[in-house]
Amino acid sequence: MELTKLVTKLQTHTPKILGSEKFSKYAVLLPLIQKADGLHVLFEVRSLELRRQPGEICFPGGRIDPKDADEKGAAIRETVEELGIHKENITGVFQLDFMLSPFGMIVYPYVGLINSPEDIQPNPSEVGEIFTVPLSFFMNTKPEIYQINFKVEPEGNFPFNLIPGGENYNWRARGLDEYFYTYGEKVIWGLTAKILSHFVEILQ
Questions:
Q1: Which residues, at least 6 apart from 197, have a Cβ–Cβ distance to it below 8 Å?
Q2: Which long-range contacts (CB under 8 A, 24 or more apart) does 1-8 make?
Q3: Which residues does 65 contact at the CB level (< 8 Å), separation at least 6?
Q4: Which residues form the Nudix hydrolase domain (predicted)?
Q5: Cα(108)–Cα(29) distance, rounded to whole angstroms?
Q6: How far, in whole angstroms, is CA 187 from its chain's centroid?
Q7: Rounded to whole angstroms, how far apart are CA atoms 121 and 80?
Q8: 3-state secondary structure 113-165
Q9: 48 pLDDT higher than 70
Q10: Which of 60, 88, 143, 154 could crosslink 158 through cysteines, CB 3.0-4.6 Å?
Q11: pLDDT in tens, 151-203
Q12: Model's pTM, two decimal places?
């Protein structure tokens, strides 16, 4: 390849996360509502009828659809569908840091204010119940953090002869921090808790 063509290719390339085209992309909204005692965070409990993670606590959200204008639009659309509210009821939407999951997902979290929360009518096919927790609880409570370790298991035909050390290669262990918040009988954990912790760090 000629140098001029090489330079043109590099100049017109838009950097992205390597391999991101193979990742599933999701958007979620951390919903805030104003109550008499201050701001609260709204949570959903996933319907027990769902095949994936039934009964778990989460934020509104889901897979980004090709018809969505962008990640923010996807987060708002999913919130509208799951909480049964109008798009106009969601204001002050801001982006948080996006997250790469070791399970092949990119998650784009947002935070926004839900106005007229009395109009919320959860979609029963997706949402078993909703509840709120004062934001002050999370501002004053650190999450418990536990680590999950992943074991490296190369497939049967892995070419050990091509790497230094062969079958005795010193694979680097991988770990994942899992976050937990406990509020009464509610346990908020996993990705939801990690997004929540990140949001609190920004505020503090």
A1: 143, 179
A2: none
A3: 74, 77
A4: 23-154
A5: 9
A6: 17
A7: 10
A8: EECCHHHCCCCCCCEEEEEEEEHHHHHCCCCEEEEEEECCCCCCCCCHHHCCC
A9: no
A10: 154
A11: 888 999 999 999 999 999 998 878 889 999 999 999 999 999 999 999 999 99
A12: 0.87
Residue 106: how many other CB atoms lie within 10 Å: 17
Whose CA is closest to 176, among 146, 153, 154, 142? 146
CA 116 to chain centre: 25
- The predicted-structure confidence for 130-144, as pLDDT tens digits, reads as follows 999 999 999 999 999
Amino acid at 187: V
> In angstroms, what CA-CA distances link 144 with 24, 61, 97, 170, 181?
28, 24, 21, 31, 7
Radius of gyration of the chain (CA): 21
Rounded CA gap, 8 and 120, in Å?
52
Tokens of 170: 């010193």
Report CA 125 to chain centroid distance, whole Å: 21
